[in-house]
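Quick log. Single chain, no ligands specified.
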Amino acid sequence: MIKYAYVTDAGLIRTLNEDSLCLQNTVCSNQNRKRSGVLFSRTFKAAVFDGVGGKNKGELASLFCSTFFKKNYKPSSIKNRSDVYNFAQSTHDELIKIQTQENSDMMTTFVGVSSHKKQLVFMNIGDSQAFYYTNGEMKHLSFEDSYLNELKKRREKISDEDKEKYQHVIVNCFGLPNFQNEKTHCYFEPIRKNSYIYLF
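-> predicted structure:
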């Protein structure tokens, strides 16, 4: 038995809610909404897509990718990192196909989790976050694809101004022209009883 709860909200800065999410075979998007319930399933999948702010039609990008995840992501088919990378590439490719001149830069971040048998798979692209609380420990199982973190990896000197300027500049997400599927972050964890998963 899996208890779940979710909430979507536009937040304090933007007027438009660009969030979409998928839980099993249900998609929720573009509305401020709360819900909770119970799943009686050992195999499950969940994902959150957040349209990239400042770009065109992020709400459409997140809804499209959430629906694609619902229809095409099969937890039983994810055996290794290559399977995650392939699914990420498929999602990006399909999003590119629906772009038009008016929404050529619509993009979305992604964080997801799935279970099959005794294994959890966590995935993220962009700055969406995943946490797994188990055995009294909170594990951070995602990585922010920000330009600030790129600078840190290069061990470059970072000023306070740079931190402010580049912290929220996303360098990889669905819809980005130079999207790199092999940079999809994925983590494999055992399923444990009385654990909590947080996606946002």
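The longest strand covers residues 108-116.
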